[in-house]
Amino acid sequence: MIISGFQSLLQAARMQPEPQQMLFVFARTELPADASAEEKARFAKGQGGALVPIMFVDKKPGEIESFAQLVEEARQMEQDWDFVFVGCLSGQGDREPSDEEVTQALEVMVKSIQGGIIDHLLTYRPDGEQVRLQAPQL
Fold it and tell me: Starting at the edge strand that comes first in sequence, how are the strands of the sheet with 130-131 ordered?
């Protein structure tokens, strides 16, 4: 199934034979303190910066109805964010992923985002637009 938006992601998660846990890591872009003048200029134009995870949550697919609901719940945390990264964790057979497995998966996601390794995650802007971020070329 091709994921064409958040609703199709929810549908795909609900259709899986094993129980799913959806993982969400909210991040903002920040300019590092030691940024060069060129990096500052690019950042001012909405380019570059570092991804900084600021909060995360896990939910069963049935606990969320829409992207708007997710955004509203995030808004209540009073944290500005630029992107939400989404992953899914499968259970085994009829067993849901354990709390320990979920915590470990979220920690791996956070570290991946901090390291710029994000190709395996779906990414959305606060307006629900699905985007594909690219790491800068060295």
Answer: 50-59, 20-30, 83-90, 122-124, 130-131
pLDDT value of position 1:
63
34: its two tokens: 């030691």
137 in any annotated domain: no
Number of domains in the chain: 1
**Cα(77)–Cα(49) distance, integer angstroms:** 23
Say if CB 66 and CB 9 are below 8 A apart: no
Q: Which residue range is the domain that position 54 belongs to?
A: 6-131
Q: Tell me what the mean pLDDT of segment 52-76 comes to.
A: 95
In contact, 63 and 56? CB cutoff 8 Å: no
Give 11-61 pLDDT, tens digit per residue: 999 999 999 999 999 999 998 888 889 888 888 888 888 899 999 999 999
The answer to whether residue 64 is domain-embedded is yes
Tell me the whole-structure pTM to 2 decimals. 0.89
Residue 13 lies in a domain: yes
Which alpha helices (H) appear in the chain, and where do they start and end?
A: 6-15, 37-44, 67-75, 99-114
Asked, for residue 21, whether it belongs to a domain, the answer is yes
